[in-house]
Design a protein that fits this description.
This protein is α/β, with parallel strands linked by helices. The chain folds into two domains: about 25-185, Rossmann fold, CATH 3.40.50.1970; about 195-420, Dehydroquinate synthase-like - alpha domain (Dehydroquinate synthase-like, alpha domain, Up-down Bundle), CATH 1.20.1090. The protein has helices spanning about 30-35, 45-50, 55-65, 80-90, 105-115, 125, 195-215, 240-260, 265-285, 290-300, 320-325, 325-335, 340-350, 360-375, 390-395, 400-405, 415-420, and strands at about 20, 40-45, 70, 100-105, 145-150, 160-165, 170-175, 185. A hairpin with a 4-residue loop joins strand 6 (about 160-165) and strand 7.
């Protein structure tokens, strides 16, 4: 095979778990576990999802196949290093040879961390991405994990990523490795029918920013070449396969999100959003997200008093609200890196052609219209942040190496501060 010196990357990777999608798909989970060789499964969920009865329905399907199953419903919404430690301790106490995550990103990220830390040596911080953690790479096999999303949002059922709120650091950070990817994603739109409007809105904006960020990310072949295949990052940058899924996801969100928020019983809208979330995971889970997600981690990690409607009564900024809050300013900043992609994203989300003369304002305008229609918070002041805390937020953003590696335009601390300043209020 010929070799050549190449200063930039010439290879991209793309992967996704097998996907089972459709109304009533969770009824087949027992058979799915059997196919994976699982005989004793632990369902990992949170109290709110447990109250909907969906985990019980999953457990019934598992038992109907003659398998053993137990439910752990102690997942924290927006999981922390402490809540994950408690879930890991519980999982180590049982004989489970497989896991089922039932819920939103919190349940799926917790299940990924449980799977990692019950099969590998070391601590959670050992595996957190640098410079925050040690960046340790798992080397041993993990157990089969089936992911069952109940919100149309995170796309975590398709990704290698686990995000954790590090309480002492007042910062969110992530772990990313192919072994964290679920063995199977089971997406049943019926599980999202009881999700409140505010949660539907926030989850939907997570879908949208995933797709738009990945679509506008640094192209894989503009990155410095990795020294080896083993060193190649899971977030490889925008690439032709991810682009297809991201375009479809943006189109679906533009058609269905408003309807799903306005009427939770609209099955067609719920179906469309579940589909959008699933295909977005296949896009951003390989290409990678950039500035809005890098900003979201310190926004969520340093919050003090904000309470979000539809979520547990505790200080927290839901992830979808956090990523949406700086998206307008972020895409205004990245526009010069690829104007055509930003204009195309605006067309897909808005459902109609845009005037090229709008330039950098086209995508922010479309996002502003959507955010207002679905009742999202107006900028980061809604979360309690003021201009005198921008330095704290910027510092947290600049530590997010995974996202910053695919930013399409170099992000300085001055530029990051300006994005946050523009995002104090979005309209």
């Amino acid at each position: 095979m010929p070799s050549f010196d190449n200063p930039t990357e010439s290879v991209f990777t793309w992967a996704a778990p097998p996907l089972k999608f459709g109304l009533g798909a969770i009824a087949e989970i027992g058979e799915d576990l059997q196919a994976l060789g699982v005989t004793n499964a632990l369902i990992i969920t949170d109290p709110g999802v447990a109250a909907t009865g969906v985990p019980d329905r999953v457990a019934h399907a598992v038992k109907a196949a003659g398998l053993d199953v137990r439910i752990f419903d102690g997942v924290a919404v927006e999981p922390t290093d402490v809540s994950i430690g408690e879930a890991v301790e519980f999982a180590r106490s049982g004989p489970w040879d497989g896991y089922i995550a039932v819920g939103g990103g919190s349940a799926m990220d917790t299940a990924k961390a449980v799977n990692l830390l019950t099969t590998q040596p070391g601590t959670l911080m050992d595996y957190i991405a640098p410079p925050i953690g040690g960046g340790k790479v798992p080397t041993l096999p993990v157990k089969p994990l089936i992911a069952v999303p109940t919100t149309a949002g995170t796309g975590s059922e398709a990704t290698t990523i686990c995000v954790v709120d590090l309480l002492d650091l007042r910062l969110k950070a992530g772990i990313s490795h192919p072994r964290l990817r679920p063995a199977l994603a089971v997406v049943d739109p019926l599980t999202s029918m009881t999700v409140p409007a505010a949660v539907t809105a926030a989850s939907g904006m997570d879908v949208l920013t995933h797709a738009a960020e990945s679509y506008t990310a640094l192209s894989f072949d503009a990155r410095p070449a990795f020294p080896s295949a083993k060193a190649r990052a899971a977030f490889c940058g925008a690439n032709p396969i991810s682009d297809v899924w991201c375009e479809k996801a943006m189109e679906l969100v533009g058609v269905h999100l408003r309807r799903a928020v306005m009427n939770g019983n609209d099955l067609s809208a719920r179906y469309g959003m579940a589909y959008a979330s699933a295909v977005t995971g296949m896009g951003f889970g390989n290409a990678g997200t950039h500035i809005p997600h890098a900003n979201a981690y310190p926004i969520a990690g340093a919050v003090e008093n904000y309470r979000a409607q539809g979520y547990p009564e505790m200080p927290m900024v839901p992830h979808g609200q956090a990523v949406a809050s700086t998206a307008m300013a972020a895409f205004r900043f990245t526009y010069p890196s690829n104007p055509q992609r930003h204009l195309r994203a605006a067309e897909l989300i808005g459902g109609r052609p845009v005037d090229p003369d709008e330039g950098a304002e086209a995508l922010p305008r479309v996002l502003r219209e959507l955010l207002r229609d679905i009742g999202m918070p107006n900028g980061i002041t809604a979360f309690g942040y003021s201009e005198d805390r921008l330095g704290e937020l910027v510092s947290g953003t600049m530590k997010q190496s995974r996202q910053l590696s695919v930013v399409p335009r170099p992000l300085t601390t001055e530029a990051a501060e300006q994005i946050f300043r523009e995002s104090l209020r979005n309209w």
